């Protein structure tokens, strides 16, 4: 039960922060979801750092890892919003934004995880 509480608390904080970032960075004028992109890339970097620390000499406890990686990063990043925003791009015929957003999210997201793990080596 304690593990569920850590995930719940971390997820709540991550979701609130993602909402704030999206509110201020997503562009209603262009429709480009800068906030979602920023949250997903930053979350990828953070999970790389957190799991890198957890693996390095057991620097983090299981509870800390659940709070930060599973909870916070899980609540902070969002695949469902990413998928919906791509749906909007495709529905409006904006194939260029769809391609750039999708490719950049995957490539930079993966690189951010690796960078986070590299930083804690």
What does this protein look like?
There is one protein chain. With 121 residues, this protein is mainly alpha-helical. The protein has one domain (2-119). 82% of the residues lie in helices and 0% in strands. The radius of gyration is 16 Å and the shape is globular. The model has no long low-confidence stretch (mean pLDDT 94).
Structural key phrases:
0% strand, single chain, mainly alpha, 121 residues
Percent strand equals: under 5%
* Count of alpha/pi helices: 5
Mean pLDDT equals 94
How much helicity do the residues have?
A: over 70%
Radius of gyration, in Å, reads 16 Å
- Taking the alpha carbons of the first and last residues, their distance comes to 32 Å
The stretches of 5 or more residues where confidence is low (pLDDT under 50) are: none
**Class by SSE composition:** mainly alpha
Net shape:
globular
- Overall strand count: 0
Q: Name the helix and strand elements from N-terminus to C-terminus, one letter apiece.
A: HHHHH
User: What is the domain total for the residues?
Assistant: 1
Q: Mind describing the biggest β-sheet?
A: none
């Amino acid at each position: 039960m304690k593990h569920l509480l850590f995930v719940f608390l971390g997820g709540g904080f991550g979701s609130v922060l993602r909402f704030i970032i999206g509110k201020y960075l997503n562009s209603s004028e262009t429709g480009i979801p800068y906030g979602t992109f920023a949250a997903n890339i930053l979350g990828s970097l953070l999970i790389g750092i957190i799991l890198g620390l957890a693996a390095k000499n057991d620097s983090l406890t299981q509870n800390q890892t659940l709070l930060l990686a599973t909870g916070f990063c899980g609540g902070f990043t969002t695949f469902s919003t990413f998928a919906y925003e791509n749906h909007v791009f495709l529905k409006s015929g904006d194939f260029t934004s769809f391609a750039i957003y999708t490719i950049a999210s995957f490539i930079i997201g993966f690189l951010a995880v690796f960078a986070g793990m590299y930083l804690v080596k």
